[in-house]
């Protein structure tokens, strides 16, 4: 817990370099609690194309607790849940059950394999809600970069009964809140990007339907959960219009959305110095996942 609090406090020094649109007038208080961790928990079903694992963090206070599914970045092709360990510990230290997952990589596994991985992770959480003392109505998600894309997509397609909600979706995959940073929300704008081509299996001219289906902004409707988006204003890898357009689309559909602009930071820097955004995101999750909001 000490490591998590130091991480949050030190990186939170950059608060003055951010602008929080649609922020609440008064900050939501964050509790402080101890936590326990279970590492390398297999969450993928038997017979899944490859075994997938998660680290699960549980507060030491009495539940039931809200929970957060956490997904790492890496262009859908690399990295691991270890990148999100500090963030997962921070969330656990303020009262969330946290499931920090790995997922399958492109190009060996094309979209929507990664979304299916998040969907089965949600089923895993629901199946163990009593053992982990989870309130099943208060499950959110947090991700950065490609992980932000995946949690955002999960948030806007769950329960829609469309193609992406089958066969691994269903009501158990519905999120109550989403925190997403550096998010590629409209993959149609990356038609010549190598990482997106590896994920979707071709250029936008070759597989236009895949680009459409894989873009969270396309699936927004009025039933979607509240969103907290954070993004670096100097992000050249995922330009900030990916956040501003997504934010505007959510609002246009009557979905609560907050946009936290991290001034003067690019894609990597906005992750490495994300302490103030994670703190604001944690307050957003406490507020939106409180029992009074159900």
UniProtKB/TrEMBL annotation:
Protein name, as recorded: Lipase
UniProt lineage: Bacteria, Pseudomonadati, Pseudomonadota, Gammaproteobacteria, Pseudomonadales
Keywords on record: Hydrolase, Signal
UniProt signal peptide: 1-20
BD-FAE-like domain residues: 55-250
Any matching Pfam family: BD-FAE
Keyword Hydrolase: yes
Transmembrane segments: none
Organism: Tamilnaduibacter salinus
Gene Ontology MF annotations: hydrolase activity
Highest taxon above the source species: Bacteria
InterPro entries: AB_hydrolase_fold (IPR029058), BD-FAE-like_dom (IPR049492), GDXG_lipolytic_enzyme (IPR050300)
